[in-house]
Amino acid sequence: MEIFVLLLMVAAFGAYRLKARTQARRIALLASHLGRYQVEKLMESLTQGYLRALGEKDPERQTQIWNMLAASEEQLVEQFRRFAADFSAVDLADARVSKLPVFLPEADRFFPDNTFDMRKMLSVHAQGIARAVHNEQGRAPRDKAYTLSAELFLMQHSCHWYCRSKAVASARMLARHQTPYLQLLASVDPQTREAYLAVIGR
């Protein structure tokens, strides 16, 4: 009995070390590409700007803020497009993401049919962000900001899913943005949602 317990402890410790090493490798890989661009800085600037615009009572001043944010939105489109193109050069083995709700070490390698390609996912997000910014649907500034925010949060969810797991990604979205995963998915542009679901095979 003691040997059995000891073996379980050794196996659990080994699985933990493998999990930590795998997640650290993925985080480093994503960061090595993302760090070349100003995506995170632009996202933070836009989020704060949207809150400022939405809280402005003077319509003229509010319009000025929306117009000022347009340049940052265009920069974000270009920066994220370049980031997604850069990440597309990653090997498929490193781009696979397990669709299991929780992280299991090497699940993406042992069960490749139950994975999605992060390279394709980032391309979906790049197109969604560009679509929201260019606003061919003619959404009002408030609705445009809402849609673009949803696009950015869903992209963040995908990045957390890639580095950790779907469960962790969803928990972080709920904690940081008070938005459940399904609500987030329902809030993006319909074309983004359709392409996103196609990538994850739903």
Descriptive report:
- The protein is mainly alpha-helical and 202 residues long.
- It has one domain.
- Helices cover 77% and strands 3% of the residues.
- It contains ten helices and two strands, in the order H-H-H-H-E-H-E-H-H-H-H-H.
- It has a two-stranded antiparallel ribbon.
- Helix 7 packs antiparallel against helix 8 and helix 7 packs across helix 9.
- The longest helix is centred in the N-terminal third of the chain and has 33 residues.
- It is elongated.
- The N and C termini lie far apart (45 Å).
Percent of residues in beta strands? Answer: under 5%
- Give unreliable regions as ranges: 10-16
Q: How many extended strands?
A: 2
Structural class: mainly alpha
Helix content: over 70%
Strand order of the largest sheet: 1-2
Which descriptor suits the 3D outline? elongated
Q: Overall pLDDT, averaged?
A: 88
